[in-house]
Amino acid sequence: MFGILSPTSQQVMKTHVTICPEDDAPPSKVLRTDESPSRRISSLLSEATTSETLPLIDFYVVFMKNKQKMSAFLKQIPTTVGAEHLKRVDKSGRVLLQRVGILSIELLQALEEFGMTENDLQIAKVPSTRPVTRQQFDWAKQYWPTCFHRDKVLEGLLDSSVFTKKDKFEIYSWCKRALHVGSVVVQNGKELACSQITSQLLGHPVMTMVQELAKCPRQLGDYLATDCDVYLRDEPCAMCAMALVHCRSARVFFCKSSVNGVYSQGKWQLHLEPAINHHYRVFQVELVSDERKSSFCGR
Fold it and tell me: What start and end residues bound the annotated signal peptide (predicted)?
């Protein structure tokens, strides 16, 4: 089915004429993506990524009154294993030592050498993991200075800026088709295969789509869905989600949450499972015509 045109080429697109500065130049047509606040593309990421906060743990800290001895003291105390994302000293001069528990002999010796004892120790709550978003970083630094490296790709996924207007228009168009047929596989703007639910025992749209995809000629070195986007009406169940892993899908877009789906937060989030040998991006697409009721994959 390589010859099938994308929905964007089959539909009549709304255009408006832009006046050109040159009298002899033809008027240009500008694509309107018909953006609507009801439409949204959401990347399904882990709760640890989308959370505004981070878990906190208790650490021993000590205040260094003599700042001139700070460098020598830092060289003497043991390295804070597991806290590489935390800075050793905060603005007030408190030094991060170790997690609350039994003090190491090396730390006790260092404290004694610099004229301090266990009684000088304080307990501070610090972020237990590295912040991955600006929002998490701003929250974490209220507790302790924390290292942060901006991830532009992740930020683009969080606010959907990873998609251009043209990308969004095509995604919405393919999702509208998926709402009618169940599942669609697309590569480079061309539909490779599509499928609806069947009466067979394992006749879920994804399973039958994979069977259809196996009949399509592929480029040398490509597996079933290599570099392909998959558009689905319903959030896949575990069986369908694993089938998309095995056929090496690149991205998966679905329109309706499923009772037995495995992508959303609070569920398995199979696409983020560390144990699987292939991972793909997952996006939920909300359309104006969407019904808000949950569906059921396979029905």
Answer: none
